[in-house]
Amino acid sequence: MAVSAAQRLLPSAGAEDLDITEYFEIDDDPQMLRGEIGEDGSLLVDMGGEEEEPQRGTGEFFENLADDVIPEVELQRIASDLLMKIDEDKQARSKRDEQYEEGIRRTGLGNDAPGGASFQGASKVVHPGLTEACIDGEARLMKELWPPSGPVKPKVIGEVTAEKQARADRKTAYMNLQLTTLIKEGFDTVEKTLTQVMLGGSQFIKLWQDHRLGRPRMQFVAVDKVFLQAAADSMQEATRRTFCETITQVEYLQRVESGQYRTERVPPPAMDPEKSKAQQATDKVEGKEGTGTNIDGERDIYETMTYLEVSDEMVQHLEHEESGKLYPYLIAIDASSKRVLSMYRDWEQEDEAREPIEHYFEFPMIPWRGAMSIGFCQIIGGLSGASTGALRALLDSAHIANVQGGYIKKGAGVSGQNKKPMPGELIEIDTGMETKDIRDAVMPFNTKEPSTVLFQLLGALVESSKGVVRTTLDETPSDRPNPQTPVGTQLSRVEEGLTVFSSIHGRTHTAFNRLLQGLHRLNRLYLPEVQRVDLEGKETLIMRRDFEGQSDVQPTSDPTIYSDRQRFEQIGAIQQRQLTLKQLGIALYNDREVERRFLKLMKVPDMEALLVAEQKPAELNSVNENVAMAFGRPVVVFANQDHLAHLQSHLDFAQSPALGGNPILQQKFLPGLLQHCAEHMVYHYVTIINNFVSDAAETPAHELYSQEDDVKQAFDQVLAMASMRLVPGISITFEKALPLLQKGMQALQAMMPPPPMDPAQAAAKAASEETQRKAADDATKAELAAKELERKGTKDQADAGLKDKQIDTAAAVQREKTAAELLKAREGNENKLTTTLIQADAKEETAEGDRQAQEGIARGNRMQVEYTAEGNRRASKDTAIAVAKAKPKPKPAAKKASK
Prior knowledge:
Elements: E1 7-10, E2 34-37, E3 43-46, H1 72-92, H2 94-106, H3 129-145, E4 152-154, H4 162-182, H5 186-200, E5 202-210, E6 215-221, E7 226-228, E8 240-247, H6 249-258, H7 277-286, E9 299-309, H8 312-315, E10 326-334, E11 339-345, E12 360-364, H9 376-379, H10 381-402, E13 406-408, E14 442-444, H11 452-468, H12 487-497, H13 499-526, E15 530-535, E16 538-543, E17 553-555, H14 564-583, H15 591-601, H16 622-630, H17 643-655, H18 663-697, H19 701-704, H20 709-733, H21 737-751, H22 759-799, H23 805-825, H24 830-886, H25 892-898
Antiparallel strand pairs: 1-3, 2-3, 4-17, 5-6, 5-12, 7-8, 8-9, 9-10, 10-11, 13-14, 15-16
C-alpha cells in the first residue's frame, strides 16, 4: 500500500524514546522505507515515488473482475448458470429451513408454538426447556470464548525467541483491540451466532474488509440463508456454496462507493425480498411485521464461491489464469436484477493448489452425517413439544376444574337465560313452570383435578431433555460432593457430568480459531505499513509485515477446560501438591506464581497491589542475615563470604533463648536458618576444594576444566584426591554445628503438621481398614455364636441331672472360662454388647445358684446315706456281739476227753 511521501506516524511526545531500528532500515536499500526525525520530533517516512491513492489488497490480483474486466455477455452467462444452480440448492435443503422454523416456534417466543387445545381459555403456555438450553449453552460458551481481557492470546510457532515472543505479544494486543473496540459489532455478532448455534446446529459469521470504514467487519449469517450443493458432504468440500445476504439501498451504495461492487448501479426492487420460513418465525419473535412497501430498498445478494472453467473468451481478459483450467471465484449477484455485482479471485496468488479462501466461518454444534450439523431443534425438538403438551394439559385440566359449565335440559323453560355470574354475585333466573328445582334442569360437568400421573410425566420429559445435552452440572443436596472428597474425584465428576458439552466447546474453540486466522489474513493484506497504537497503556508500533507468514495467535479459551469449577479444582490440586512437597522438603513450585494464578482465577482486579513486592536477595552481613531470617525474608549465600564466620553468627543467634530460641521467632526463623546454614556448609566445602586445587596447580580451578576427555578425567582425579584429604577435616569443623542443626530440624518438624496423604493412598488405606474391620467383626460374631452354643450345651447337661461333683466342677470352670472369653471378645464393642453381657452375667448367676442348690441337696443326700450306712453298720456290729455273747461255752469234760 502506498502512502504519501511525507506521512507523519509518530507525534513529537516521546519520539526520542522509541527504538525504531527493528522496524526500519534507513538508507540501506532504495526499496526499503526511509525515515528521518523532523524538527518537531516526529518521524517522517519517505515511501519513494510520487504520491498515489491508497490501493486495496496486494495489487491487481484481487481487483473486481466484473468492473470493466470481463465482458458483460460473459457475466450474464455466468449469472444465469449460477442462479439456476442456486435455485436447485435452495430446493434441495428446504426441509432444513422448515426444521429451523419449527425449532424457533417451539421456543414459544413468537406466541405461535404448535399444538394445544382449541377451546376458549385453553392454555397457550410453552415449556421453556428449549429456550433455557440455548441461553445456558451460549452463556457458558461465551464466557470461555470472550473474557473481558480479550479473546486472543499468543502462540509462538517453533523455537521461542525474544523476537518471536515480542511480535506475538504485539499482534495479540492489537487483535484484542480490534475485536473488543475497533470492530464494534464483534461481540454482539459472536454472541448472536452462539445463541443460534445451540438451536439451529450450524451458523456462520461473515468476515470481510470494509474499505469505506478502513477496518474489518463481522456479520451473522443464519443457516437458512446458506445454500450448499446437494452433493456436498461438508462445508469445506463443497465446490459451490452460496450465502444470501439482505442489504439496504444505503449499504449497497456504500459498497459501490468503496469499490467492493461495480460502479454501474442497479436499482432496488419495488417489493420486499422473499423471506425464508425461519426468518418469518424470527420476525414473530421480534414482533415485526412487513409493510409491503420496500421503502429502504432491501435486496437479496447471492454471494457464491464456485469453480469456473476459464474459457478462451475469458482468458484474453485475465492475466493470472490459463484457458481450460478450473479456478475458484467469489461472485456476488443481485437476486432481483440477476446482474453480477462483483467477481473476485478466491485464492491466494502464491497458492499453487488454488484452495478457496475462507470468508464465512461455520460454528457447528453436533456434527452429523450430512454437510450441516444438528442442534436442539433436531435433538430435543420432539421432547420439547411433548413437555409443552403435558404442561398445557395440566393447566387445561386445572382451568376446566375451576370453570363452571354443564348441560341444560331442553324445554325446561330456562333457555335464553344463560348467565355468567362473577364470584360473590347472586343472579335471579326464571326456571319455568315445569321445573320445581333448578338442579333438575341443569347438570354440571363432572370434572377431575389435574392428574398426578400427568405431572410425573412432565417431570420425566424434562429430565430426558436435560439428559441429552447437559450444559450445566446441576446438583441436588443428595449428590452434592463432600468437601473432603479428593480433588481427583471432583475433577472426574465434573468431566463425566459435562462430557457432551466439552466436545461442543472444543468445536466452538476450533471454529473461533479459524475466524482469528481470517482476521490475521485481513491484517496482512490491508493494514497500513506502519501505525502507532496505544496498547495496554503504552504506545506501540504495529506493522503490516508482523502479520506475514504463519499465524501465531489463538483463542484464549482452552478446549480441555470449560468451567471455572475445573480451574478451581486444578489450582486446588496444585496448592495441595505444593504443600505436600514443601513439607517433604522439596521446593518445586514458584509460590508467587501459584498465588498469582489463584488470584487471577478469582478475577481479583489489580492483584499485584495485593501481593508483597518481590524482594531480590542482596549480599548482607551475618547480623543482617539473622534479622532478615527472623522476619521470614529470603537470604542468599555468596561465594566470597567467610562461611565459617557466618555459621558461627547464625548458630549463636539460634542458641540464644531470647533470640533464635524464642518460640515467637522460631516459626519464621528456623526454616530459613536451616536452609541458609546448609548452603554455607556446602559453599565452604566448595571453597576449600577449589582453593586447594588452585594452589596446587597455580591456576584457578575453573580454568582447569576442559571439554577434552583426557583433561576432564585428569581433573576429576585431582578433585577426588583433594576430597580424600580435605573432607575429614571439613567434617571435624562442622562437628559442633551438626547437633544444633539436627535439633533445629526436629523442632521444625514438630511445628509442621503431618504431610497430607496422597488421595489415592488415603482411599486405599481407608478401604483396607474397612475390610479389616468388617473381617474382625465377622470373626468376633462367629466366635461369640460358637461360645454361646457351647455354653448352652453345658447348661443343658447340668439341667439333665448330672450329680457328680467332679462333672459339676468342670462345668463351673468351663462357664467361668466362657464368661472370661466373652468379656474379652466384647471389649471393642462395649456400647453394643453391654446389655448382652449383663443378661449373660444374670443367667450365669442364676445357673450358679442352681448349681450350688443342687450341690447342697446332693451333699445332704450323701450325708444321709452315710449316716444311715453307719447306723446300719453299728447295728450289725451290735447284733454280731449280741449273737456272740448268746452262744454256749464248751464243757471241760469234753476237753479232757479229747486230750
